[in-house]
Amino acid sequence: MEIHIAKNANQLSEDLAAWIGNYITEVLTKKERFTFVLSGGSTPKRLYSILSATPYKETIAWERIHFFWGDERAVPYADDRNNAKMCYEELLSKVPVLEQNIHVMRTDISPEESVKAYEAVLDEYLKGSETSFDLVLLGMGDDGHTLSLFPGTEVIHEKDHNVAAFFLAAQDMYRITLTAPIVNDSACVVFMAVGNGKAETLKNVLEGKRNVDQFPSQIINPEKGQLHWFVDEAAAALLGK
After folding, report:
1. Cα–Cα separations (whole angstroms), residue 125 to 35, 45, 207
2. In this structure, what are the phi and psi dihedrals at residue 23, rounded to the nearest 5 degrees?
3. Distance (Å, whole) CA 17 – CA 41
4. Which spans in the chain are helix H?
5. Are strands 163-168 and 135-139 parallel, antiparallel or unpaired?
6. What is the CATH number of the domain that holds 49?
């Protein structure tokens, strides 16, 4: 595991954009396509804005990247809470990505049907690969959740399926999510965490006793790949103390 600490959230996004650009270029010297799992939420918006602008808009081989999602709220695409909508608006609509390379978690069908459809997509694209995805971008909530793996939910321990859906009573909605095994089989996972509201949780996740039911982010630890945490000074304030 490698921890990268930036002065503030903006610098973190600049640093991570440069890191991602270099990583994509490096991987694409060895293989024909790059698989990238996007994260929703507010934290990566600035990162996506940077990646969609010069120089990355021109230097990244966008047409060779296949995009996937880590999780989705089961709300219509037009709903501002929809993760795919945010990623389209902030990144995908601004770079020369191929439409057929964008693989959203469908919300125009039932959550159960969406799970089956996404598992079929993953089976098609990842069959025979040494790892699952080349890069999985994740956030961490103040409560320690990542993806739609929320504290105390059964899906944290899902081992038989790569995709799952469940009703999250606290949000009164269904969530669709990748599960820990397929993420832990990826070549690289990058977490983003910013702000002093994350400081105590980050300390518990990285330095505390293992308790994945309380801090689900602890369950993400790539077996064959890299794990990076990009955090700002505010989020890192309690580390090592």
Report:
1. 9, 27, 35
2. -65, -45
3. 17
4. 9-27, 45-51, 56-59, 83-90, 111-126, 180-184, 199-207
5. unpaired
6. 3.40.50.1360
H or E element that contains 226: strand 226-232
3-state secondary structure of 214: coil
- The label of the residue with tokens 């994509």 reads 24
Long-range contacts of the stretch 29-33 (C-beta < 8 A, 24+): 32/64, 33/64, 33/65, 33/66
230 in helix, strand or coil?
Answer: strand
Query: Backbone phi, then psi, for 109, in 5-degree steps?
Result: -130, 175
Which DSSP symbol is given to 32?
Answer: S
Summarize pLDDT for 94-113 with one digit per residue, the tens: 999 999 999 999 999 999 99
Residue type, 182: I
Q: Using one digit for the tens of pLDDT, what is the confidence trace for 9-56?
A: 999 999 999 999 999 999 999 999 999 999 998 999 999 999 999 999
Whether residue 237 lies inside any domain: the answer is no
Q: Which amino acid, 42?
A: S
Q: Is residue 142 part of a domain?
A: yes
Radius of gyration of the chain (CA): 17
**Residue 238 belongs to a domain:** no
Distance CA 66, CA 198 (A): 30
Site of tokens 């409560």? 143
Cβ pair 90, 67 in contact under 8 A: no
Structural domains of the chain, count? 1
């997509």: which residue's tokens? 121
Give residue for tokens 């009703």: 167
**Domain hosting residue 228, numbered range:** 2-232
Amino acid at position 147, single letter: L
Say if 240 falls within a structural domain. Answer: no
